[in-house]
Request: fold
Amino acid sequence: MKRFLPVVIIIAVLIVALGGAAMLMREPVSTPSPALSTATPTQRVVQTEEQPVHFKGRIDAPLQLEEFGDYQCPPCGQFHPVVQRVVAQYGDRVRFSFRNFPLVTIHKFAAEAARAAEAAGAQGKFWEMHDLLYERQQEWSKGAAARPFILKYAQELGLDMNRFTQDIDGAVAGMRVAQDESVGRIRGVTGTPTLYLNGREVPFEQFMDYDKLRAVIDAALAGKS
Amino acid sequence: MTNSTLDNDRAGPRRREALLDALAALLSLVGLADAIYLTVEHLSGRSVRCTVIAGCSEVLSSSYATVGPVPLAALGALAYFTAFSLATLALFGYKGARTLLAALVAVMCAMSLWLLYVQAFVIQHFCQYCLLSAAVTLCLAALVIARRLLQRHARSR
Reply:
């Protein structure tokens, strides 16, 4: 009997390990933050003196999608094509807004990138810079400095370079980013990307995948009709 | 020297060797739990989000977190389970298991050191679960070395 005891122990550990993994996989994926779980739905939409947010789509669209993002955050980069598909798919029915939430403690170029998007926005090219920063995230975020890449993108977009180089370090871009951040903090944003649909936070696991996000959006649309 | 004195002389080191085997098995279980957690988190996409305090998202969403379609943590779980099995077999006196365990721990140790280098100098972020795994592997290596020394010492007496 003693001869088989180690084999029995090994098999028992294997069963426990597989069972534990299966239980972890089945754990509820959405864990709302305490601040949100205690708030009523109306409290989630915090009214503040907010600056005009950058948005795409009709202002009165039935679907109001709002992202708090960090240009250097890898999952935000992964989420970018998902948003683009949603905007293309839902057209006039969706308004997509973007707010900066640079996680400066872990992403050293995040604030600079956010200011670059705002500086491009001052010349009417916010979304163009936004797309470039996400699409080429691997290029500018891995080196010793992001600025040469950002300047290259600004040139590609045909921006007035003198103005852009002043604006990127200027007070206005910095203030816009800071305001977005403070709106995020008031709403309880702690990570990126964070997505709101019609003022309610969408669990992270439900929006990183296009099909899952579409299901959430369709459910919201069905609820409105 | 009587036979009973000889037996007593051998029983001490044997007990210590068994204790080291048991510790190696227990440590492997810690590593296994950590690796399973990371694998599940990776597969479910739960902890990939960037947060203000931790660097796990950077590490787990980097290209170093997978080998083809397989999460690296899953390979870690397999390695820890094998280490646990070998330590258990060694504890019950299967002699070949010790040599295999030493070889496996050497490979795991090399892999952990490389991953530490990647976190420190390439990704420039640390994931606490990956650090725990590295610590477990290094402790396993220490146990394997201690066991070898103990064995050599017992033989030389």
About this structure: Residues 5-26 of chain A form the longest helix (22 residues). The CA atoms of residues 41 and 200 of chain A lie 7 Å apart.
